[in-house]
Write a structure and sequence with these properties.
The radius of gyration is 17 Å and the shape is globular. The protein starts with 9 loop residues before the first helix and ends with a strand. It contains eight helices and nine strands. This is Bacterial bifunctional deaminase-reductase C-terminal domain-containing protein. Pfam families: RibD_C. GO terms for molecular function: 5-amino-6-(5-phosphoribosylamino)uracil reductase activity. Pathway: Cofactor biosynthesis; riboflavin biosynthesis.
């Protein structure tokens, strides 16, 4: 265990949260937060659990990514904007051979998204809407002016196949994938053995109630993970990073 750490120490944090080098496939990193008693939200939003250190890591992980992958429910609830970077951050990304700003990619079978959402209106790059065969034509009609709409179905035309979505991202050289949830998308990635690492912040608070877990879905698996690092800060937040282990 390292700590306490200063999550604003960009050089040290970048080293600790660097993606593997020379990727030839998508490496999927999940970034989530939970309370001590396992709740993933406070008052319905994950941001209610965050502190300054977690927010700093949130932005650092976005800066490292080629694409930010989300489920539609998270986009609606959190109302995230597109990634916002300084000139220095953009230059660092260019030196690494990345686009200045990573797009947000949304997995959604219905493509039922509000045109006024900030990830449409407050972004420099058009989002990617990864939807299904049954919906793609209508989604392109409704959203084609503000996003790139892509068919990411597999054998079932009524659902998005996450493995197909990742293959599409890999074909675009978007290998460094950051997913910020929500719980249903994270659960699907776990069930399909597509999650390579999980960065979980444990907030030093108890919330009780019926808050959802970080992963919520019908399937249940035992995906073995191994710890890469364990950090803490002066406010008592715990920053864990686990990578996929051998089964």
């Amino acid at each position: 265990m390292l700590g306490p750490v200063d999550t604003a120490d960009d050089s040290r944090m970048r080293e600790l949260y660097a993606y593997p080098e020379n990727l030839q496939r998508c490496w999927v990193r999940g970034n989530m937060i939970a309370s001590l008693d396992g709740g993933a939200t406070s008052d319905g939003k994950s941001g209610g659990l965050a502190g300054p250190g977690d927010r700093a890591l949130f932005h650092l992980m976005r800066e490292a990514a080629d694409v930010i992958l989300m489920g539609a429910a998270t986009v609606r609830i959190e109302n995230y904007s597109g990634a916002q970077f300084s000139i220095a951050q953009r230059q660092a990304r260019q030196r690494r051979g990345q686009a200045e700003v990573p797009p947000i990619a949304v997995i959604t079978a219905s493509a039922n998204l509000d045109h006024d959402a900030k990830f449409f209106t407050r972004t420099e790059v058009a989002p990617l809407i990864l939807t299904c065969t049954n919906t793609v034509a209508d989604a392109r009609h409704r959203l084609g002016a503000v996003a790139e709409v892509i068919d990411a179905s597999g054998s079932d035309p009524s659902r998005v196949e996450p493995a197909v979505a990742l293959r599409i991202l890999a074909e675009r050289k978007m290998f460094r994938v950051l997913t910020e949830g929500g719980p249903q998308l994270l659960s699907t990635l776990i069930e399909d053995n597509l999650l390579d690492e999980l960065c979980l912040t444990v907030a030093p608070m108890l919330i009780g109630g019926v808050a959802r877990r970080i992963a919520t879905g019908p399937g249940q698996v035992h995906a073995q993970m191994r710890p890469a690092h364990l950090l803490t800060d002066h406010e008592g937040y715990l920053y864990t990073r686990y990578v996929r282990g051998q089964s």
